[in-house]
Specification:
Blueprint: E1 7-12, E2 18-23, H1 25-36, E3 42-47, H2 54-66, H3 84-96
Antiparallel strand pairs: 1-2, 1-3
Helix pairs in contact: 2-3
Length: about 100
Amino acid sequence: MNLTFTLIEEITRNDGSIYYELGNITENSRAEYAADHGFIKEVRILKMNVPRSSHLEKVEAYLNETYEELPIECDHFPEWKKTPEIQKEMDQILLDNKLG
């Protein structure tokens, strides 16, 4: 995949637990579709126009190299698992955007 991420989303799993993910308009549309069809409970955009940083670029590169882009109308909602190193970068993105 070759996506540019500009959003931070809060995703609520069906069990009620929450995680944060980078996204863009297309990924948000996929998450909204997933919520409408019961694959996840809810998605909320917490931050738009996330500033480009070395942390964001590292997470973005990892996601683009590791995962394939799915169509909006799919039969599941994949949660992107991150390595401990990439999760630290994601945590820093949340802190930099006053969300962590």
